[in-house]
Specification:
Layout (H helix, E strand, L loop, with lengths): L3 E2 L4 E3 L4 H4 L9 H8 L7 H4 L14 H17 L2 E3 L5 E8 L2 E11 H5 L3 E2 L6 H14 L1 E2 L3 E5 L3 H10 L6 E4 L5 E7 L2 H11 L4 E5 L1 H16 L8 E8 L5 E2 L1 E5 L7 H11 L2 E3 L9 E6 L2 E6 L15 H14 L10 E5 L3 H10 L5 E4 L5 H9 L10 E2 L10 E2 L1
Parallel strand pairs: 6-11, 8-12
Antiparallel strand pairs: 1-5, 2-3, 4-5, 4-10, 5-12, 7-21, 8-11, 9-10, 13-20, 14-18, 14-19, 15-17, 16-17, 16-19
Helix pairs in contact: 4-6, 6-9, 7-8, 10-11
Length: about 400
């Protein structure tokens, strides 16, 4: 079963929802956040990336950053204003980007189920990133970042979603990046029916937001230790049916060729895997496109032996790491190696070409996207996907629904 709970959301007025809403805190750098929030005192980035309101060069993990986030949230509650719902509620949240549309349920989900692996994971988390958001939650007594969940689609939930979304939404706006955001409150009898329908969902899966979920669990443990857990037994998330999910590739750039010339690297690569001239987009699973010295190549990894027998080990990102990045470019742990960067698929192949031709990288790799079936299967077997395997698009906005604890 999957337990969900209505919650008294802290949320902006309808008129200011678009101005308050912001991209997730972890998809932008400090400089990018400062630019996005420039001229907009209502932007929720002042809460989630509050270092933008402190002198340039401020350590984003300094104590003053969290104190400023708390102050900024208090200011925003007054100025936006942000108001707390009169009663606990559920919401359906629709994202529309171009021709793609997906609608999920926003609710509070069980920290116990997360810790018991009934909300399943596929990614390891970094302690420093957990430390950051755990402190942020505790300082603000609020979960400001929304976890992105998925589940195997269910007709009953689809039917309830259609009924609720036929009514007037509480928010409906197009963000600056072109993504359309629409949110409906689930009212009356239908709220109980939604809770009951989710109780029959056998498992939930974290698609995006492993650090946010882990931080919510750590914050609860710390607050319990103080005897002040409040509403920390749950965390805010939006759960989307698997048949609506859109995964884009998570591409790679490498700053240098580990002392090799492009010709030497290409020769070594051809001894490792089949290589031919290609295009910026892989033709399918088992192929990776590579941009090197002004040309696109196709790497055939379909016959490359996986590192192990797991489904995670058979992913293209794992084969690329095992046969190319580690042995030829000396990239060890991709989570900590400063020579590798990652580019979300929404930025397109042009961003990869620009990185190489502009000198920020020596080589770029364009991946075929992982499927949602891969993610669910790997999670079900208790596996861990390679870091930076998936890029979910479109993304939820921060600031529209906040869970105070």
């Amino acid at each position: 079963m999957s337990a969900i709970r209505p919650f008294r959301a802290l949320r902006p007025s309808r008129e200011n929802a678009a101005a308050v809403s912001s991209v997730p805190y972890d998809v932008v750098s400090t400089d990018e956040a400062r630019q996005l929030a420039s001229g907009n005192p209502l932007s929720f980035l002042h809460v989630t990336r509050s270092e933008i309101d402190l002198p340039p060069g401020t350590d984003p993990y300094a104590p003053g950053v969290y104190a400023r986030a708390r102050e900024n949230l208090a200011t925003l509650r007054h100025d936006a204003p942000l108001v707390v719902e009169d009663e606990p509620s559920l919401y359906f949240y629709r994202l529309r980007m171009g021709g793609h549309e997906q609608t999920g349920l926003a609710a509070c989900f069980s920290v116990d189920e997360y810790e018991q692996d009934r909300i399943k994971k596929h990614e390891r988390t970094r302690p420093d990133k957990e430390d950051d958001r755990t402190r942020h939650i505790i300082e603000l007594r609020a979960q400001t970042g929304v976890v992105f969940l998925t589940y195997r689609c269910a007709d009953t939930i689809d039917r309830l979603c259609r009924a609720v979304t036929a009514d007037e939404p509480i928010y409906d706006f197009r963000a600056d990046d072109g993504v359309h955001h629409t949110i409906w409150k689930v009212r009356g009898r239908e709220a109980g029916e939604v809770v009951d329908a989710f109780s029959r969902i056998p498992a939930l899966y974290i698609a995006d937001g492993h650090h946010r979920a882990a931080s919510a669990a750590r914050a609860r443990a710390e607050l319990r230790g103080r005897g002040d857990a409040g509403e920390a037994d749950t965390f805010i998330a939006v759960a989307f049916p698997d048949n609506q999910m859109q995964i884009l590739p998570y591409n790679r750039t490498v700053k240098d060729l580990a002392g090799q010339t492009p010709e030497q690297f290409l020769d070594a690569l051809r001894r490792a895997v089949p290589v031919r001239e290609g295009s910026a987009t892989p033709r399918g699973k088992g192929e990776v496109s590579m941009f090197l010295a002004g040309k696109w190549y196709a790497l055939d990894l379909s016959g490359a032996a996986p590192e192990d027998g797991s489904r995670a080990g058979s992913l293209d990102v794992a084969r690329l790491q095992h046969h190319v990045l580690a042995p030829l470019l000396k990239i060890g742990d991709v989570r900590t190696d400063k020579r590798i960067d990652f580019v979300g698929g929404a930025r397109g192949a042009a961003a990869l070409e620009k990185a190489v031709t502009g000198g920020q990288a020596a080589v770029a790799f364009s991946m075929h996207p992982v499927t949602i079936d891969d993610l669910i299967a790997i999670s079900d077997e208790g596996g861990i996907m390679p870091p930076k395997s998936t890029w979910f698009e479109p993304k939820l906005r921060d600031g529209l629904l906040v869970h105070t604890i």
